[in-house]
Write a structure and sequence with these properties.
The chain is an alpha/beta fold and 421 residues long. It contains 12 helices and 14 strands. Bound molecules: 2-acetamido-2-deoxy-beta-D-glucopyranose (NAG) (7 copies). The site of one 2-acetamido-2-deoxy-beta-D-glucopyranose (NAG) has 4 residues, from loops.
Length: 421
């Protein structure tokens, strides 16, 4: 059960299996009660979630749980499609001053606006709009950390814009955090809420990384967490982990201090390993680090791989993303490296989640991969720099703000509400 709860997206079952499962609960009422009670408790009170009703008492003919009048079944919110909604945006470049220029597509002259007119519609329920007050009430006295790369920052900036208006962010949120790294921390006194972003594009310790040079390489200590987050994370209540695009670089892997291989490195003297080898180990190390911290009581949330949409080339040789509407599910399939990245991280998430459950820790999922695969229209393309910057390269990896990345926070709130029951 616990497994099923944190694994919603990938624990999809055929209806017959669902019935069989319910039958199982009916068949062993005592066991069912024991197993189902925490689940029921977890599910009953979703005031903002219009989910499909499922009457447990009726389903369990013997009246196993007569005190529960109506229980709403969990909806797999990550399975769905984008539907037109001309009222889907929450803010604009004019109303949110916290958008970084690289994602400020409207300000930088993106001419088409249709990418703003879509809302995520889970197949089995409606996703409520983001409610900043609800979010902040859940965060009262708590702390939330994003660990990852610039896509995590993109996610965080969306969250800040969604909260802006409720909170006077520029006055009250003071960046004052680990100056030697690219990590930041903000404090919201009205809610005693701490928000942090830890810059750790590989999750693990990396050296010889130069994001400014064209070498696009890095040496990774696959068994050592990046200290930027590892030394700070213990007290956080919610930790959103993500990683991905940096693993496409030319990487050299070290374990126990020894060179073990490399990926995309074209070296004949070193074993040729895949990027997935490093990606898997990095997540293993991140999860192991969290689970080892005695004081860590946080909810760990994996935000899954966010696909890019370069067409006709890659980021450095003229690739573009010119589409102006979402794909339908029939038009694109999760395949190739997107699928491999996703599969790898899901496998490690499941394995670590089982360990976490033994420790009474919660692992939850923000499985954005398929939803974002459908949004080739959501990237800045050329509108990530002002026109006087002399470059013709496109950004088909980050997401415009406002834009489809705001949905990540609608879903984050959904996950947090589930935790608050
Ligand atoms: C748009 O959404 C806002 C916020 O949910 C709501 O107050 C408003 O009535 C909506 N407008 C329309 C035209 O649906
Ligand atoms: C917002 O973007 C529009 C163009 O879409 C621009 O005219 C306006 O000056 C921008 N406002 C701010 C505050 O960036
Ligand atoms: C703020 O929250 C922390 C827990 O994160 C708590 O220890 C502290 O007492 C709270 N402070 C106030 C002023 O409520
Ligand atoms: C390393 O493996 C990759 C993927 O399997 C392959 O494309 C590449 O040619 C290999 N490189 C070397 C030097 O063997
Ligand atoms: C891809 O490049 C070709 C040749 O440069 C061009 O004709 C075509 O329109 C491009 N397609 C897209 C989707 O950019
Ligand atoms: C993935 O699917 C797309 C169509 O959605 C296809 O164009 C592409 O070639 C496929 N890539 C791989 C690696 O199978
Ligand atoms: C922009 O870069 C191109 C190629 O690097 C160069 O030929 C051109 O002169 C540059 N233009 C400006 C305005 O700097």
């Amino acid at each position: 059960m616990g497994f099923q709860l944190w694994e919603s997206r990938h624990a999809e079952q055929a209806p017959s299996e669902k019935n069989a499962r319910r039958g199982l609960l009916v068949g062993w009422p005592v066991l069912a009660l024991f197993v189902a009670l925490p689940l029921v408790y977890f599910l009953v009170d979703f005031p903002v979630q219009p989910l499909l009703p499922l009457n447990f008492a009726a389903g369990g003919r013997g009246g196993v749980l007569p005190k529960v009048p109506r229980v709403e079944r969990r909806c797999d919110v990550f399975k769905g499609r984008w539907v037109r909604d001309t009222n889907a945006t929450y803010y604009s470049n004019a109303t949110c001053p916290l958008i970084q220029d690289q994602q400020n597509c409207l300000k930088l002259g993106r001419p088409d606006r249709d990418f703003l007119n879509w809302r995520w519609k889970p197949d089995e329920c409606e996703l409520p709009r983001f409610d900043p007050v609800r979010f902040l009430e859940l965060m009262r006295g708590k702390s939330l950390a994003f660990i990852g790369d610039s896509v995590a920052r993109n996610h965080l900036r969306s969250l800040m814009c969604l909260l802006y208006g409720v909170l006077d962010i520029p006055d009250d949120v003071t960046p004052k955090f680990i100056p030697e790294t690219r990590s930041r921390k903000w404090y919201f006194p009205e809610y005693n809420f701490t928000l942090a972003r830890f810059w750790a594009p590989f999750l693990v310790k990396a050296s010889n990384t130069d994001s400014l040079s064209k070498s696009y390489r890095a040496d990774l200590r696959l068994d050592e967490p990046d200290e930027s987050w590892a030394r700070e994370i213990e007290k956080f209540d919610f930790v959103i982990l993500s990683a991905g695009h940096w693993f496409f670089r030319s990487l050299t892997f070290y374990e126990e201090g020894r060179l073990v291989g490399c990926s995309a490195c074209w070296r004949s003297d070193v074993p040729n390993l895949t990027r997935h080898y490093g990606y898997r180990k990095a997540f293993q190390t991140a999860y192991r680090t969290l689970l080892k911290l005695e004081g860590y009581k946080g909810v760990t949330i994996l935000r899954t791989f966010s696909p890019e949409h370069f067409e006709n080339g890659s980021w450095n040789n003229g690739g573009r993303c010119l589409r102006t509407r979402p794909y339908t599910e029939a038009e694109i399939k999760l395949n190739g490296s997107n699928l491999e990245m996703h599969t790898t991280q899901m496998e490690e998430f499941r394995a670590a989640g089982r360990e976490a459950a033994k420790r009474g820790l919660k692992f939850r999922l923000l499985d954005m991969t398929e939803a974002m695969l459908l949004r080739p229209d959501g990237h800045p393309n050329l509108y990530w720099h002002s026109r006087h910057v002399n470059t013709t390269s496109s950004d088909c990896l980050h997401w415009c703000l406002p834009g489809p990345v705001d949905t990540w926070n609608e879903l984050l709130l959904h996950v947090l509400i589930s935790e608050s029951v």
